[in-house]
Every structure is written in C-alpha cells, then in structure tokens.
Amino acid sequence: RAAINHLKRKSVDTNVTWMKRTTYLSNDLYGAPVHAFKSQAAAVAEQNAGLDQEMVEVNLQSAATKIEATFHAAAKDLAALRHPTNPGLRAEWALPVLPDVGLWANVFMHVGFDLDPVTQDDPNKDPEHIAEKKQRFEKAIISDVRENEGGGTSKPVMVASYLVPKAGQTGAGEGGELAFEHLRGYQIDVRDTENTFVFLVDAEGGQATYCRLDTRVDLKKGRPDPAQRNLTARLTRRRFAAAEAA
Q: Which residues form a coiled coil (predicted)?
C-alpha cells in the first residue's frame, strides 16, 4: 500500500521532453476538436464522388456532341459516307431512324436456337421439303414450360416443348383450327438484355423504325423428356375481345 501511495504522489518530470503532454493550439474555440480529422477512407470516398460527378458531366457532354454529329452525318451526300472499318463499302440509300410508336408499348423478346429446327432433322436437306417445313414452323409455339429436376445438373432447369402444325393443313383463318404436334424438347435459358433493339426497314415507304428487346430466350437441345413426346395442342384463331384490344 505504501508503494501505491508513492506512485500516486509521483509527479511528471517536465525536464524530459518526450514525456510532456501534447498541447493543441487553435483559434477555433467553439468548433469541432482540432484532432477530429477525416479518415483516409472518408477522404477517398469524397474524392471518388467528385470524380464520378465529373465523369457524368463529361459523358453527358460527349453524348450530346455525338447526337449532334448524327444530324450532320445524315445530311451528308451518300457518296461522302464511309464505313468506319471497311472503306470499300458504299451506301446505297439512307433513311431516318425513329422509335416505332406502334410497337414501343409492347414487350418483345429475342428467341434463339442452338440448332435450326427446320434443317437439323432433315437428313436429305431436300429444298422442297425444307421450304414446306419452314412454312409450317413459322407458326410454331412454345408450350409446357416448367422446371425439370432431372436435367442432370445440380439445380433445376427450365424445359419446354416445341410444337409445330401438323403436315397437310391448309392454315387457319378466323374461326379456323390448327392441330399441333411435339417436335422436340428444349432447355430454356432466359436473361434480361440491355441496349438491344430490332430495326424495321420500310424501303418503299422511305423510313426505318426500331423497338426495344427486353428479354433473350435461348432454346438449347437438351435431354429428351418422354412426357413431352405425346404432347399435342389445338388452337383456334379469333379476334381480340374489346377488353383485350384496349
């Protein structure tokens, strides 16, 4: 206890410079403490935020400049136009490109096949037979979309049946009926797309329009599903009801 009391009474030796208490001097008597500095992370974050804002302003200015340049390019003579990577190409005609007002309100998707269903099962590649199949396959539908846990992967996969009109049918007008049969099962991969558009060119009307494609659907040849082989369907064509057309 005597030793403890001795330590309490011990004073700081002011002759030793490194043992002196640090004194902070400031003329800010009412503000934040002088040692309340920003952390390095906060300083870096603030600097990055400033750089991001500058990049946004630069990109907007660059986009405006590029948009303005398209109007000047559209006014050029066709003979003066040059392809950016192939100088040997020459423009035959030029059309104004605008958003398609009639289609823009709808939602469209891009459907792709890993193998062309029209030709992949035709061993003879007979042109007449392929032409007949192509005409039928233009009316093909995707049906029986569901999850299949037996796809041989660690997680379920989406599968569907590709149905085509049966051969020998003349087509279905209003009120007519078409019978469909299963051609092949596909594994489906659906993903969202960005900055993907389809262009519709009307050379006779002298205009071109475009609309957005929000989704891409890839149909891949997968493991056959015996449950889909006997799948059939019948579709009847009719006009839209008033509520559907609104």
A: none
